[in-house]
From TrEMBL, chain A:
It is a multi-pass membrane protein. Subunits I and II form the functional core of the enzyme complex. Electrons originating in cytochrome c are transferred via heme a and Cu(A) to the binuclear center formed by heme a3 and Cu(B). GO terms for molecular function: copper ion binding; cytochrome-c oxidase activity; oxidoreductase activity. Residues 1-104 form the Cytochrome oxidase subunit II transmembrane region profile domain. This is Cytochrome c oxidase subunit 2. Keywords: Copper, Electron transport, Membrane, Metal-binding, Respiratory chain, Signal, Translocase, Transmembrane, Transmembrane helix, Transport. Its cofactor is Cu cation. Binds a copper A center.
UniProtKB/TrEMBL annotation, chain B:
The keyword Transport applies. It comes from Thermocrinis albus (strain DSM 14484 / JCM 11386 / HI 11/12). Pfam families: COX1. It comes from the Bacteria. This is Cytochrome-c oxidase.
Length: 253, 539
């Protein structure tokens, strides 16, 4: 349903290893398409430029410039071709973005609230995790702790291989929730509810960063996602995952 | 058109004359000196930022100081350098290029400068401890409504002074350009520099009121308890972002269009031929100016705005790459069959074109939501606009300084040290900004005083800091070259580049009233007709 012809065409031709997390694959696709286009354009411009720069330098036999009138065919060509390229890029992005933006049906919904300076994760059954900035730093040196030294209480448990839909809001100022492995972010805006989705396939620990400037401790407003296999998550969560497709009732005030 | 008569040159003036002057050339020089001074202050704060990011952890300053430095760096670099420096070029060169004795409203012009100067004094005062402003140059509410970020009223006042100054200058230069061109200088014949400044000033007139409105509403929200943006009273913080970016996106074209104008002048002069596709260059300038007002939502792709609007603005955003591309293609085509002189200004300008290409190509994906969703507010964005502002605009400004240096001072700069400085600037800033792009792709968020000890990030940050210091040495050499040459440089001829553009046909430095009588430009004259000059050696 969400796969346009363009998208299928491209994903079929792009032999990428499955990324650690979704929807990072679509970001990578967009990235590689852009990279090829950008490098090609760079070379198409720079190589002739350097060639002209050397060949037509001021020297004996080339003291004066020759007159070249406008070349309309060339000018039309380098207007039309870039227009086609950028329209293709924007359309391709449109196709990818629909997947990146819309959570698969039956995604596990959690609510995340940003505050100065930390994150509150609320699960459908009422379980809560709070990641506060001072849990991210060494109490003495105030240096950032590496992932494995951060206390488990500051880690939000996430089941591996399950799509997660995050409903975001903020208590005070604008923050932004960036899921590092999934390569998606969305602002947490006070008075609004925004959303994003991700799915992490490989168990492990991953960063979440605040990406919108929010004051003194902005750079320590991180959280850690502890991604565990489904069974382990259920043990932590205290019951089975809400059945996919039949979402638990979960109202946001 | 010959200009005779003994005049005291502009720089021989007393302090009193400098303060009360309405001479566009003196005002231009004052703008230049002020913006160069602020460029150095902002550059030094950037070195502080880079030093802090060299290693994870907070070694040299606390977060509040870092945030204040970052705000200072952003505000000063954009308003005083990237925008302010063009006031210098516009004021000094525009009347000379159109054959006018001064701008249309000389007193208003002086007022503009003194508004700018007052804003500068206030901006310097924010550097004092206790006066720091820490809300970043964007000043997004609700964080800017928070008491912890410094005085919003102070910030708003600075913006208002700058806005008044920019508006007055813009009106002045547009009127001067449209009404005071000497006979024979038609719109079609006038320098591309003038077309670029015309479009840039129109953007200022249309856009500045939006920014002034945004900060005024912010001021009312914070001190008079209105509720435009404050969500705790029912306001909408996203509204601010819309109004703010409605001006603050077009303002990047205020920074870069004049740079395009300067590139066109210098490329044409040193290739000794007319700019290729001159009409399409003018069309591209206006295309950029108009499209520039239709793309601001790309700054807000992750702000929680409706999805459909992101798609519309992603198309308009990438389309702006087309006129920008046309300009680059035309500059490259101008080299074709030219007779290229590799003077210092030409080398700065060619480097700027190659760097602008990287800046432009890294800007395209930021208009694609599928890409932007990972790099919004990351160091990738920072790297992108540093390729455009930190390199393109700065290299062009310095190229322009060197190019018109003999005209302004009557002396010659040092070619050797100018080229040495360029090599250092290119090595340093590419090391710096390219790795900034990479660390951004790896996910490094911007405006972070500290970052987690991820090994790749540490290496990338260390190398960036090394690059930043190499860049600083290069910039220092270039500035030193300008300052010392103004005093000790050898005397320059009136027209060292043999350009028929009108500013080169008056003595260096130009006499107080530029032209003894208003020049009448003949039919075969054109600012890019390099044979005309050899046919009319004595005009």
């Amino acid at each position: 349903m969400r796969k346009s012809a363009l998208l299928t065409l491209f994903t079929a031709s792009c032999a990428l290893a499955a990324p650690v997390a979704e929807p990072a694959r679509y970001w990578y696709n967009m990235y590689y398409i852009w990279l090829v286009v950008a490098v090609a354009i760079y070379l198409i411009v720079v190589i002739p430029a350097i060639y002209f720069a050397v060949k037509y330098r001021y020297r004996k036999g080339n003291e004066t410039a020759q007159h070249v009138q406008e070349n309309h065919l060339l000018e039309i060509l380098w207007t039309i071709v870039p227009v086609l390229i950028v329209i293709y890029l924007a359309t391709q992005s449109f196709a990818f973005y629909r997947v990146q933006r819309n959570a698969p049906e039956g995604a596990f919904e959690i609510k995340v609230t940003g505050f100065m300076w930390g994150w509150q994760f609320q699960y459908p059954n009422g379980k809560q995790v709070i990641a506060f900035f001072n849990m991210m730093e060494d109490p003495q040196t105030k240096e950032y702790l590496p992932l494995d030294k951060i206390p488990d209480t500051a880690k939000a448990y996430i089941p591996a291989g399950v799509p997660i839909k995050v409903l975001l809001t903020s208590q005070d100022v604008i923050h932004s929730f960036y899921v590092h492995p999934a390569k998606v972010m969305e602002d947490a805006v006070p008075g609004r509810i925004t959303h994003l989705w991700f799915q992490i396939n490989q168990p492990g620990e991953y960063w979440v960063f605040c990406r919108e400037y929010c004051g003194t401790k902005h750079s320590k407003m991180a959280a850690v996602l502890k991604v565990v296999p489904k069974e382990e998550f259920e043990k932590w969560y205290g019951g089975p995952l809400p059945i996919q497709g039949k979402q638990v009732s979960f109202n946001i005030q | 058109m010959a200009v005779a008569g003994v005049h005291r040159p502009w720089f021989g003036a007393t302090l009193k004359e400098w303060i009360f002057t309405t001479d566009h050339k003196k005002i231009g020089v004052m703008y230049g000196v002020t913006s160069l001074l602020f460029f150095l202050i902002a550059g030094i704060s950037a070195l502080g930022i880079r030093l802090e990011l060299f290693q994870p952890g907070l070694q040299y300053m606390d977060e509040d100081t870092y945030n204040a430095l970052l705000t200072t760096h952003g505000v000063l670099m954009q308003f005083w350098w990237a925008v302010g420096v063009w006031s210098s070029f516009g004021n000094f060169l525009l009347p000379l290029m159109i054959g006018a004795r001064d701008v249309a409203f000389p007193r208003l012009n002086a007022l503009s400068y003194w508004f700018f100067f007052s804003a500068s004094v206030l901006a310097v005062l924010t550097l004092l401890p206790g006066n720091h402003i820490r809300m970043m140059w964007t000043g997004y509410p609700p964080i800017s409504l928070n008491d912890n970020v410094g005085q919003v009223a102070y910030y708003a006042f600075i913006i208002h002074l700058l806005g008044a100054s920019s508006l007055a200058t813009a009106v002045n230069l547009v009127v001067t350009n449209l009404r005071m061109r000497a006979p024979g200088i038609t719109l079609g014949k006038m320098n591309l520099f003038l077309h670029a400044f015309l479009a840039m000033n129109v953007i200022q007139i249309l856009g500045v009121p939006a920014l002034a409105g945004a900060v005024t509403m912010l001021l009312l929200d914070k001190y008079f308890h209105t509720a435009f943006f404050d969500p705790s009273r029912g306001g909408d913080p996203i509204l601010y972002q819309n109004i703010f970016w409605f001006y603050s996106h077009p303002v990047v074209y205020v920074m870069v269009l004049p740079a395009f104008g300067v590139i066109s002048e210098i490329v044409a002069t040193f290739s000794r031929r007319e700019i290729f596709g001159r009409k399409s260059m003018i069309a591209a300038i206006w295309g950029i100016a108009i499209l520039g007002f239709m793309v601001w939502i790309h700054h807000m792709f992750t702000s929680g705005i409706p999805d459909w609007i992101k798609i519309i603005f992603s198309y308009t955003t990438v389309l702006i790459g087309v006129p920008t591309g046309i300009k680059i293609f035309n500059w490259v085509a101008t080299l074709y069959k030219g007779s290229i002189r590799y003077t210092t200004p030409m080398l700065y300008i060619l480097s700027a074109i190659f760097m602008f290409l990287i800046g432009g190509l890294t800007g395209i994906p930021l208009g694609l939501p599928a890409f932007d969703i990972n790099v919004q507010d990351s160091h990738f964005v920072v790297g992108h606009f540093h390729y455009v502002l930190g390199m393109t605009v700065t290299l062009v400004a310095f190229g322009g300084f060197f190019y018109w240096f003999p005209k302004v001072t009557g002396r010659m700069y040092s070619e050797f040290w100018g080229k040495v400085a360029l090599v250092l600037i290119m090595v340093g800033s590419n090391l710096f900004y390219f790795l900034q792009l990479i660390v951004g792709l790896e996910g490094m968020p911007r405006r972070y005083a500290d970052y987690p000890p991820i090994p790749q990030w540490i290496t990338l940050h260390e190398l960036q800091t090394v690059g930043a210091f190499i860049l600083a040495v290069g910039v220092g050499l270039a500035v030193l070259n300008l300052v010392l040459s103004a005093k000790f440089g050898p005397k320059a001829p009136d027209n060292p580049w043999e350009s028929p553009s009108l500013e080169w046909l008056v003595p260096s430095p130009p006499p107080p009233h530029n032209f003894d009588k208003i020049p009448h430009m003949p039919e075969d004259w054109d600012p890019y007709n390099y044979e005309w000059l050899s046919k009319h050696k004595k005009v």
